[in-house]
């Protein structure tokens, strides 16, 4: 620590700060419900030393795509360098590796007056270098422990590489398969998003943010980003109070309660107010009602983008709106650094608001232990030992196989015997070593995943012949492999079918075909909305041609969104949903294909019959004319079913389960009381297997119309053949309450239905009444 250049008064206060800080033993409680008094004192003492330019500087976050040599000589980088030296930057994103982070931290430590360390952030969405399944896929495991474990490994690898903060988890309820970012969250259900989000937050943050293996999480995008009209990214969101409070906000409330250190706001507007400038959301609800003391970062450039929305006249106006609304840190808009001081002088914002935002930044820096040692996460040896280790890859394989969903398996075509004479592995994604890494793959290296072809070869012996044919290219490469995803124009191959003949030839001579089709890594993710959610390019042609010569087709799907599988499920006996499963994809799929692992995943999103049904979700509201034979006209379609082809919560196993004897221990309770629901689940097949037992409720009459079914609990259990387990759920105030027309969370008296089953279409039902 260099304090020699500080004036005397500062030396005294700062040595005080650093002495207090060096008392170890004290864990920094990441739960933000109660403030840690000793940290608050330190925050105050630093704040007292700060000049206005330094305060505003803490609210600035830059992207630095530079390596250990530091900023380049470009004008933009030189500007950032000057600001770093003056201590006018609070955080950097996109700088990775211990060497680069150390060099950047050094600039601040060696030049700035107060030497307030930077926080380094990065989008670690589903793994750092060891890549886990995309979040949507991982959610299909319905296994909160392994999701927590994968987040904690991602945190450990990131922290070992010098990072302090990830922009994850995304907990935007996502109901429109056209939206490219469906892949990044936990699907269509608010309850599932909440519990999965909390598991991920706990995994990233652990119990102690100052631990060298943990990083700060970021609940995003606050709020409504998943509801963009027509699935277009960044699009306008039109929701009312009921949808906002009962569907969109619950995962965020859970994240705030779980102590998510940070939140990110969103690009979209909600009913005409951009989320970034939304005071009710950020100041009144998040920081007010929920009493959350973490830091809100803007989304990339979203402060400046309020001009394009037509909500701010210019950048200065945008800065004023954003700060007033409670956006603490400006990511890459350059609006705060340029205008906050003038706005303060003009009294358009207050010093109290600035101080509050700065406090939130400093608090996190103290919690992370960065004041104690700005280089505490910078240790090359730890980076070498922890990143992409064999142990981490083993967990990635386990998480991946647990995320696979068996959608169809006629005549038990799967699992395959390892003694088969011949297997055809066909399709544009069959030997793709890159797509399984999915979008937002952080430092996952280009082409580093195990392809399915490799996985199959690893699994079978020499007596099984593997015949491979790509069949068709999915896209026409337009830029160098591994290049920036945002620059990647996806041009689908719609003309070159010259490889289909070979695919047909290998299909003909094989006992069974593994047809690997779907979406490549960059078809989903940010800015990747699509109007066609079927098999693009010439994949349908490939499917039909192969089907003609071999009916034993297992469709191995790789994708980041619900797809239109109507034709595929008409003809293929077996469909295995494999998402983008990460580094160990091929091995994990082979584990399921050959029965070394009995699939246990369940869909976290509804799969439609066709794109015209989107947005499609199970927990819809009834209209006055729900679909029924009684009505001549009804809410639905004339040319397609109203329901999903594969519903939410659905997934098969190599064994079968039965549900009986659903019991409620009471028929009536008072609001605030408890009811126990129990059910017997039996493994009726001849293999051990896991089942996700799901609990749904319906509040039959509400002051806001309530969904026809709502997931309220689940438990994943393992059953041996013939074994029965009784699974119980407690239904209480938390289960039954909703945000009512009184603008508050309460349980409304009346009748409720309860269902338990293996997916959202379960009909095993009981009812009870909540009395006044
Ligand atoms: C995305 C965020 C992401 C940020 C930083 C934005 O474009 O919307 O989710 O965290 O970039 O990379």
- What radius of gyration results from the CA coordinates? 27 Å
Low-confidence stretches: 1-30
What can be said about the biggest beta sheet?
Answer: 6 strands, mixed
Put simply, the count of helices is: 22
Percent helix among the residues? 25-40%
The main sheet orders its strands as 11-16-15-14-12-13
Query: What is the number of strand segments?
Result: 26
As a percent range, the share of strand residues is 15-25%
Rounded average pLDDT: 94
From the spread of the alpha carbons, the general shape counts as globular
The small molecules bound here are:
beta-D-glucopyranose
Task: Report the end-to-end length measured between terminal Cα atoms.
Answer: 64 Å
Structural class, from secondary structure content?
alpha/beta
Explain what this protein looks like in three dimensions:
This protein starts with 7 loop residues before the first helix and ends with a strand. Mean pLDDT is 94; it is low at 1-30. The strands form seven sheets. The protein has a six-stranded mixed sheet with strand order 11-16-15-14-12-13, with helices on both faces. Strands 4-3-2-1-10 form a five-stranded parallel sheet. It has 772 residues and is of the alpha/beta class. Helix content is 31%, strand content 17%. The protein contains 22 helices and 26 strands. Strand 2, helix 5 (98-111) and strand 3 (119-122) form a beta-alpha-beta unit. The structure holds beta-D-glucopyranose. Beta-D-glucopyranose is lined by residues 123, 167, 220, 299-300, 526.
